[in-house]
Structures are given as structure tokens and as C-alpha cells.
């Protein structure tokens, strides 16, 4: 990923910080030293946040000292802005009620006869602003939004940094041979090794998966946010993954920002098999299903585009196909080609509400199991995070997908 995105993101966040300054500083503090100090603090926090966005892209390792405060402030600023925006209508209504009305006297022209009492028009009431009460309202809303934003971010951090949840997902496949019923696939996505998540994070995920004793492990993209030289040691515990049929990987969009070719080589060295527009046969006795994997759609920009037709060429259509594809949007092509089940990630489940409401604008499924055009697709929330170490309404997870035969869950 180039620096264009973080710089454009920084510009948008600059506008957000201007809004925060208006509501948290200008509206709550009179001109003077206090306002200057608060303005300076907000500018410093903005600079810290932008620096974190840029520096962590250049050097993921060794930048945690900058990433932690920068990304946490990003989350606090986001939720403070959202809450203040929601409070704009209550603010307007409250401000309309704080004025008092006074009657305006009718001017008298010198030398003119005094008008008869019945001719004196009723003076129009004139609203007069009570600055003290308006200041009280501004400060009250600022404190309320600040405390609420801090509370939401604190809760979200405990979710993002805690152990991933285990989500057991039974899936019914009509073509599955009865001897394969109960086959278990551990699905993990969006681990996002980088400035805030390192080797300990990988070790925790490996322990979680191995405790499930899966038959197969599927890592469906966005493993890293950095090069092999920077994060190879953090990924090393993946060699300890244990399953009867091995571990498999497909690229996500972030691999193409991090040197995907080197990472594929490194994962193969660690015993994780990359499926690059290809498939393998997963057998139990004489029964089998096809496990296919396609590159992420971002690979088109790196001459490594997804090619599902190639991955499925020559398959036995009487047997079920399970497809690993990073982005849920790839399910539409999968459905046209008769894929039975697609396993995906990418969305993070929205990661931070209300982004969960925006994901459907780009992807057909945000989280969980759904059916799209006749093909089932399971979308994982992911086990890591991108940007702020915060998850609100979308806890991290490792899914255990259990395949069942002929629509009967055993």
C-alpha cells in the first residue's frame, strides 16, 4: 500500500478534528490561554495519529510506541465525532429553549402627537441569548460525548485484544459423502500481524486452533501488514499448526501490500500450503471433496489475478467444492461455477460499529453464514484488527466449520 491512502485518510481526519475543535474547544472555552492550550493539544493528537498511519506502513516493527497512542486516539476521535454529530439536534433544541423574551418599546418621534393607546402595536418579542446557559449546554454535551467515546473505545480494546471466540458453524452439503460427515475445518482470517500484533498473537491463535483438533486449517488472507524481513519471526509459530489434512492459505489484499511472493515462499517453508488458483483433493477413505483456493481480487494489480475457472478446471462435478477466497464478493462468480461452500474474511465483521452498516455497500455478506445465488458462504470476523486496536460489535473469532451430509446434522 502506498502512502497515498494514509495521507488522504489524514486529510479526512483533519476535517473531523476541525469539527471536534469547534465543539470541544471553541464552544466550551472563552478566548485565552485555556483555549490555546486545548487547541495545541488537539493539534498534537492529530499529528500523532497521522504519524502513526504513515510510520507504521514504512516500518511495522519498532513503531508500536507510536502506533498505540496514535491508533487509540483515532478510535476515540471517531466515536467522539459520531456522538457529537448525533447530539447536534438535541443541542439545537436545547439552545432554542435557553433564551428569554423581552418586549421592545415603540420609538417616539419628537414633536409628534402621542398615539392613542389602542393604536400602539403590540411589540414583537425579541429573543435574547443567555450565554451562561448555552456554555453550560456546550460543556455538558462535550463531557458526555468524551466520556462515552472513551468508554466505547475501552470496551472495544478489551474485545480486540482478548482471546478470539470459538464459533462452531454446521454446514449442510448435499453432495458430501456420508463418510465425510463431521469433517471440521478451522477457519481463521485477517490475523494482521504488524505494529501492534506480533509473535504472541500468532502463538495464541495457533493454540486456539490446535485445541479444536481440526481436520484441516484454512487461513483466508490478510495474515500480515509488513514484509517477511519485518514480520517473519512473528509468523513463525504457524509451523506448529496441527491437523490431519494440513494447513492452507490464500492471499488477501494486504499480502499484495507486503510482498506476496515472499510471503507465499515463507508460508510454504512453515508448512502452510498456498492455493493459488488451484485445488487439492481432501480424502477420507474412498470419499473426497475438492478444496480450491483463489487469489484475492487485489492481485489483478500485481499480475496475480484470481482465476476460478483455472482452479476448478477438470473437477468432478458430482463431488462438493469448498472454496477459499478472501473477499465475500467473490462468491458471485463461485455461485455461477457451482461452488458448494465459500470460506472468506476481509470484512472484520465491520470491526467498529457503525462500519457494520457500511460493509453491505461493498460486500454481499458482512459476517456469518449466508447463501448467495445458491452458494453458501461463511464470512469470518477475523482474529486480528486493522488500525485501531478496537472491536465494537464484531469480536475476533476462530470458526470451526463442520461439514454434514445430505442436510442432516449429526
TrEMBL record:
The keyword Acetylation does not apply. One of its GO terms (cellular component) is membrane. CDD domains: MPP_YkuE_C. Gene3D superfamilies: 3.60.21.10. Residues 183-349 form the Calcineurin-like phosphoesterase domain. Coiled coil: none annotated. It comes from the Bacteria. The chain crosses the membrane at residues 6-25, 37-59, 71-94, 136-157. One of its GO terms (biological process) is lipid A biosynthetic process. GO terms for molecular function: metal ion binding; UDP-2,3-diacylglucosamine hydrolase activity. Its cofactor is a divalent metal cation. Keywords: Hydrolase, Membrane, Metal-binding, Transmembrane, Transmembrane helix. Pfam families: Metallophos (PF00149). InterPro entries: Calcineurin-like_PHP, Metallo-depent_PP-like, Metallophosphoesterase_sf. The keyword Transmembrane applies. Belongs to the metallophosphoesterase superfamily. This is Metallophosphatase. It comes from Saccharothrix coeruleofusca.
